[in-house]
Amino acid sequence: MTMAAHLNHSMATKAPAAKNSTAEKLLVAAGELMIERNSVEISLADIAQKSGVNAALVKYHFGNKDGLLLALLERDAANEMTHLDFLLAQPLSPTTKMKLHIAGIIKAYHQFPYLNRLIHYLLHGLNRDTADEVTKFFVGPLLDFHRRLLAEGVASGDFREVDPVLFYTTLIGACDHLFFGRQTMMRAAGIGPVTDEVCRSYVAHIEKIVLGGLLTNRARQPSAAGS
Amino acid sequence: MTMAAHLNHSMATKAPAAKNSTAEKLLVAAGELMIERNSVEISLADIAQKSGVNAALVKYHFGNKDGLLLALLERDAANEMTHLDFLLAQPLSPTTKMKLHIAGIIKAYHQFPYLNRLIHYLLHGLNRDTADEVTKFFVGPLLDFHRRLLAEGVASGDFREVDPVLFYTTLIGACDHLFFGRQTMMRAAGIGPVTDEVCRSYVAHIEKIVLGGLLTNRARQPSAAGS
Fold first, then answer.
1. Going from the N-terminus, what domains does chain A have, and what CATH number goes with each?
2. Which of B26, B74, B117, B151 has the CA that lies 20 to 30 A from A71?
3. Under 8 Å CB-to-CB from A225, ≥6 apart: which residues?
4. Which residues in A lie closer than 8 A to residue B169 (C-beta atoms)?
């Protein structure tokens, strides 16, 4: 069930499908505004003006502003989230699946520069229903994916046993933080912006650190039995 | 230079020292309010009422609300931040120093449940000067500590070479995330709160994953040269 479907389920007063040009226009405008302003604090009036769509139609299509922001999150994260089951089913080693997953998360965050703040904003807003929707769409499926992939790796002898909830916290926290504090670090600590090159380096770094710590000694040194 | 000193430097209009009972009362009230409400969104009026101190004195002691919140962050993080140089100077292995550091960060976050959100709030607020103060007090010294400890570990043959900025991002992101998303995870994914026991487990987990990935093969298997 997609998050938009969830939303329809929980907000019975709004239109059934977001898949039409007016709704799409509103999402495009919201995403562009967030990039232009480097902030997720945008108003319905701004979205309406930029999209050329009457603000009243936001209510019709998305229920309210949170509904629009949830739909935007779903649109942007859909690629990575719907990919999880597919990835698990591939005839690849657990290590390769984990590497592809790490690269996928970093890519999604990088492609939509506001994605990380949007998730924070929706999770920590005053509306508990909104936060619950984000958890159901984002946290739950990711955690479930980690649980299954970790079990697969332990069974194959590639991964050491770790607590999936703690592993989720470590991996998602590490990925998220590249995009969270970077702007502040840039100003005060003389560190550059998150470029394509930084993303590639960080994917390699997380593989080295997180996968390095996760792998069994056997999986870590496949060709060297003695030191 | 402490952050309060920084603050005095950059906000010349306020009183020179926060070390007096009125200022302390305001900080205690602010911290207690954040715990009671499980939010860092508290007003000066609320702080004044709870502390029994006239709201005008906030301006006298801290310049403004951001100044008060920065002083609260300094008070709560001071233990861990002032400890960094001391820790580096100890006759301990780089691995032991890193373990103590990880435990120290988790302990500070756990002891002051609002600390993590307070840092996010101040870093992402509209006031750039405030964000810069947080970076100078928090991000800069931590990054410098990581830089020096990582170099020490590489020199001793215990750590693999890693980029300090990327390592900082991984470690602080992983620690921070335990406290960031937990409440939402609790509700929607059936996961319990961050107890003392969870903190201990997470410290052990981060040691296993992050240190596991950081250590050289030699340091990882000190007693087993083969296999």
1. 66-220 (1.10.357.10)
2. B117
3. B226, B227
4. 174, 177-178, 181, 202
